[in-house]
Amino acid sequence: MYPVVAIALMGVGAAVLVAIVPRWLQLRRAEFIRTYRWPPGLLKRLEKHHPGFERKHSALVSRGLRQFFLAYLMSGKRHVSMPSQVADDLWHEFILYTREYDAFCRRAFGGFLHHTPAVVLSEHRKSNEGLRRVWWYCCKYENIDPVNPTRLPLLFALDSKLNIANGFVYHPDCKELRKNGSGAAYCGGDFADTSFDGSSDGFGDTGSDSGGDGGGGDGGGGGCGGD
Asked: Phi and psi (nearest 5°) for 186?
């Protein structure tokens, strides 16, 4: 009898570990992303790329890029798309620090995160899955309702906030703007609206990958810290 009980308890213990360890690893990686110290000179490179930028501007962009990295991690490392041109610029500069970026990816994700160009919400559903995923997790990170947003998460507000030339300007919800005849194109409310492109792929899914990091939001409040 006792050996059977012992084996059963061992099985329960193993099942608990299988459930807990991936989540623990995910939270550990999220904390690494939040507190990571950027390579020396990285923010200065962004400031040179955008004349008039001061450190407060580049630090804000770095917070947005952290949001993007956290969204990728917390989605289970599924496909994500970058919604900000200026955050994309910083990501590109970071990649040029090849050793530092490779080491960051290994610690943050367990593997390399390849760069993909910034994109915006469009009526082609294929390009929106990754954006929906980032929108969902950025909203959750800042305690914003992703279905009925009253404001934008930082990553989606950056280009407008910093007046980035050819940047991507989003609005929280365009219902009122459109009623008044505005041509507002990029709207947070559209991410949850299947009538926009006939799909809601990527919106609110948790997902998981072969690395077993799981999904779900991190439940954190606003701000990423460690700029």
From this structure: -105, 110
SS3 26: helix
**What span, in angstroms and rounded, lies between the C-alpha atoms of 75 and 209?**
9
- The answer to whether the CB of 110 falls within 8 A of the CB of 163 is no
Residue 77: give the domain boundaries: 2-197
Dist. CA 19–CA 156, nearest whole Å: 33
Q: CA dihedral defined by 180, 183, 188, 189, rounded to 10 degrees?
A: 50
Asked if residue 122 is part of any domain, the answer here is yes
CB < 8 Å & 24+ apart, contacts of 97-105: 97/39, 97/42, 100/39, 104/36
Residue 202 lies in a domain: no
Q: What is the pLDDT of residues 16-40, one digit of tens each?
A: 555 677 888 999 999 999 999 999 9
pLDDT in tens, 84-99: 999 999 999 999 999 9
C-alpha to C-alpha distance for 214 and 19, rounded to whole angstroms: 9
Round to whole Å and give the CA distance between 153 and 161.
12
**In total, how many domains does the chain have?**
1
Collect all residues with Cβ–Cβ distance below 8 Å to 127 and sequence separation of at least 6.
Answer: 81, 119
Question: What one-letter code names the amino acid at 212?
Answer: G
What is the pTM assigned to this prediction? 0.81
